[in-house]
Amino acid sequence: MAKEESFKVDGENLLKKVKELIKEGNIRKITIKDKGGKEIIVVPLTIGVVGAVLAPVLAAVGAIAALVTECTITVERK
Hints:
The chain is of the alpha+beta class. It contains two helices and four strands, in the order E-H-E-E-H-E. Strand 2 (about 25-35) and strand 3 (about 40-45) form a beta hairpin.
């Protein structure tokens, strides 16, 4: 059964936190919401997603980080 966990982060730490979560390896999906609760991006992570495939996703997260001051990362774990 999937387990959800949420983290509040500020924009400057968003990319760092997403990278940390991906390295953990037991993540199914990452959802980033603005401080109003609106979904900004949903990133499904399947087994074997690595390196070059993640580059555009991390670039998008970096762009979002530049635009938001505070957001919530919701993580669905396996």
